[in-house]
User: Which sequence fits this backbone?
């Protein structure tokens, strides 16, 4: 008897899923540099998180996000940087819309995603510094049915308010309108961030 097979993942969906993972880690490295340490992997210096619980949380989050993306049940992934009291300071939004057109332009999408990562890696220069101690939340915009299903998984997601920064200024990072997808990345930054001590 054969095990149930999962539908094949298109190159487009594989690219977007891989990008979301990179997007998350680049943001965490920019915002929480102290939790990372420099290590060598395959002889190359890389930044890796030192906290096993954080690594597990991120892996569990990404598993659900990848599932949502593969089934086209998500239209945005949001990383919210917030104060320890839960006040949103920055909201990094990765929005996408998959179109019913040719998927032959996956290389164009990869080029656009690469450009977004490059822009993201320098975006902190356009933003005010966050307080020394912050936390973050990972949000996925999905349908009510998918949210209900995700809440029943071993790694349960919860329904959340949008967590918008007060008086937010929008900093657009990159927009790409491709044949297979529309992609937009922006940052919403709180007007009055507490300053670092």
Assistant:
């Amino acid at each position: 008897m054969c095990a149930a097979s999962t539908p094949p993942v298109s190159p487009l969906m594989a690219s977007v899923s891989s990008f979301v993972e990179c997007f998350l880690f680049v943001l965490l490295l920019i915002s929480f540099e102290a939790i990372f340490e420099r290590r060598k992997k395959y002889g190359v210096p890389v930044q890796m998180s030192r906290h096993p619980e954080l690594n597990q949380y991120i892996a569990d989050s990404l598993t659900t996000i990848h599932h949502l993306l593969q089934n086209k049940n998500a239209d945005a992934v949001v990383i919210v940087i917030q104060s320890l009291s839960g006040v949103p300071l920055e909201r990094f939004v990765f929005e996408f819309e998959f179109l019913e057109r040719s998927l032959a332009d996956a290389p164009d999408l990869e080029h656009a995603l690469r450009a977004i990562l490059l822009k993201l890696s320098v975006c902190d220069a356009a933003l005010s510094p966050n307080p020394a101690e912050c936390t973050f939340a990972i949000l996925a915009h999905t349908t009510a049915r998918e949210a209900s299903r995700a809440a029943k998984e071993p790694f349960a997601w919860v329904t959340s308010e949008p967590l918008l920064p007060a008086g937010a200024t929008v900093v657009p990072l990159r927009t790409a309108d491709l044949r297979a997808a529309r992609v937009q990345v922006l940052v919403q930054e709180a007007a009055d961030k507490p300053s670092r001590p």
